[in-house]
Structure formats: C-alpha cells, structure tokens
Design brief:
This protein is an all-alpha fold. It is built from 9 helices and no strands. Helix 6 (about 160-185) packs across helix 9 and helix 7 packs antiparallel against helix 8. The protein is globular. The two termini are about 20 Å apart.
C-alpha cells in the first residue's frame, strides 16, 4: 500500500488543533486561578498566533489574519497577570539569596505583599476577557476554521521540504535580529532590540515544534537550540523588567530602599550575564539546519 504523503497543510492544521484543545481544556483552570494556568493559556495563545502568522500563506488571508489578531488580544489580556507572576517568582528568589544583614525573610514578605496587590489589580482583566463576547466569537471562529479549513493550493505541498524551508526562513529572520541587537549600544534601544530578537527566536522555535511530527529528531534539535537562544534573551528581558520594578520601589523610599537597591544591582548583573551567553547560544542555533528533511 502506498504511504500517504503528509502535506504542509496537514501539519499546520494539526498544530492549530492542538493549541485549540489546550485553550479549551485550560479555561476552567484559569477561571479557578490555579497555579501556572494563566501561563499555559498564554503560551497556547502565542503558539496559535505564531502558527497563523508563520504559515499565513497556506490559509485564506482574512480568517488567518483575524484569528491571529484575536489570539494576540487574548494573550495580552492574560499578560499583565502572568507578568506579575513571573516578576514575583524572580524577586522572591533573589530576596532569599540576600545576606543576613539585608533581612531576606522580611524583604521576601514585603515583596510578596506588593506583588500580590499588583496581581489582584490585573486579575479582573483575565476574567473579563474570558467572559466577553469577543472571546466567545474567537473560539467559535477557531472551531469554524478547523472544521472547514480555508487552505490555499500551496497547502497541498509535501510537508518535509516546506517545513524545512519555513524553519530556515525563521532562522534567517532571527539571525538578523540577533546581529542587530548585539551591535546596538547600551541603553533602552539595546533592551528593545534584544526583546525583538527574543520574539524572533520564539517564532523560530515554534516553527521547529510544528515540524517535529514530520521531521523527528532534526526538528527536535533545531527546536532545542532555538529555545536556548530564547531562554538567554528571556532571562535578559526578565532581569530588565525586574530591575525596573525594583528601581521604582527604591525610589519610593522607606526602610527597604537600600535592600531594593541591592536587588536592583543583582538584576543588572543578571542581564549582563545573559548578554554574555547570547553569542554562544546563537552560534549553536545557527548551525542547526532543517534543509535536508524528506
């Protein structure tokens, strides 16, 4: 019996269906504010949006563009709450490493109270988004697309070569942004350039994930190395955000201003270490090609 050739359209639809399933399954957990639920739903939104953008030429422009826009909206609605979760975890870990004279337990308690207040301010936006007609319309539109995919003719192309070509394109796109970031002088512009490079690396990583069911181990290695680049850039971004929050807390004065300054310096050092790691991580990722997939 002749083996059926998997098309690139099949690979895309499998990816979209998997993320739709994750979103639906997580909604009760997010509403219950279960640990890590907001994070996992936000990641599913990003994976869905990335697939719709990366493989947009396989789908009719209108439905794909509209769904990508709505996935971005939902991810943003989840974003404030999730960002506060990440910031809290990072600051508490740093606080617990303080020397005894900085009263690490007291500092951790102060930061816990502050971060909980900030999280609770952001939380209503999550619930409001899930309860909104816009969210209901988004899920219905996603269901319609999966039930009757508006695939273009190029979606019938064999999956292996097309997935390899697209992954190579995303790799080149990431290379441009990484080089630009490394060439930018210190300051806010460099932080922004590194953040843009992170987004490109994440999109390349997701392209590798989409290719894994077809390409197997080569796509897995590509994905792992792109994730290492993303992780280095993510560590930098998280450190920059944490430093900004600590700077604001320290400016407000009070008995903890000095300790917040110590933590601020630690985050600047963490950002510097991440920048130092980036060239090596990118050198390894740049070598991993998907050009020889069957």
């Amino acid at each position: 019996m002749t083996k059926r050739v998997t098309t690139v359209g099949d690979a895309l639809l499998a990816r979209l269906a998997a993320q739709a399933e994750v979103l639906a399954a997580l909604e009760p957990a997010v509403r219950a504010d279960e640990p890590d639920a907001v994070h996992r739903m936000r990641v599913a939104c990003r994976r869905l949006r990335s697939a719709l953008r990366t493989y947009r030429r396989l789908l009719a422009a209108g439905p794909a563009r509209d769904l990508a826009t709505e996935a971005k909206w939902l991810g943003a609605a989840l974003g404030q709450a999730r960002d506060h979760e990440v910031l809290r975890e990072r600051l508490l870990a740093a606080a617990r490493e303080l020397p005894a004279e900085c009263e690490p337990q007291r500092t951790a308690e102060r930061l816990t109270a502050w971060s909980e207040r900030e999280y609770r301010r952001a939380w209503p936006e999550v619930v409001d988004a899930l309860d909104s007609p816009r969210h209901r319309a988004f899920t219905e539109a996603l269901d319609r697309l999966l039930a009757d995919p508006p695939l273009r003719g190029r979606a019938r192309r064999p999956a292996g070569p097309e997935l390899a070509r697209i992954a190579a394109r995303e790799q080149r796109r990431t290379a441009v942004r990484v080089r630009r970031a490394l060439a930018t002088g210190a300051g806010p512009e460099r932080d922004l350039a590194l953040h843009e490079a992170r987004k490109a690396a994440k999109r390349a990583r997701y392209a590798g994930e989409t290719a894994k069911p077809v390409a197997g181990r080569p796509a897995e290695r590509y994905t792992e190395r792109m994730k290492a680049v993303q992780d280095a850039l993510g560590e930098h971004q998280d450190a920059v955000v944490a430093a900004g929050a600590l700077h604001t807390l320290a400016e407000n004065g009070g008995p903890d201003a000095f300790v917040f300054g110590v933590l601020y310096g630690g985050q600047l050092a963490a950002a510097a270490r991440a920048r130092e790691e980036l060239p090596g991580a990118w050198a390894r990722a740049a070598k991993r090609k998907l050009s020889r997939l069957a």
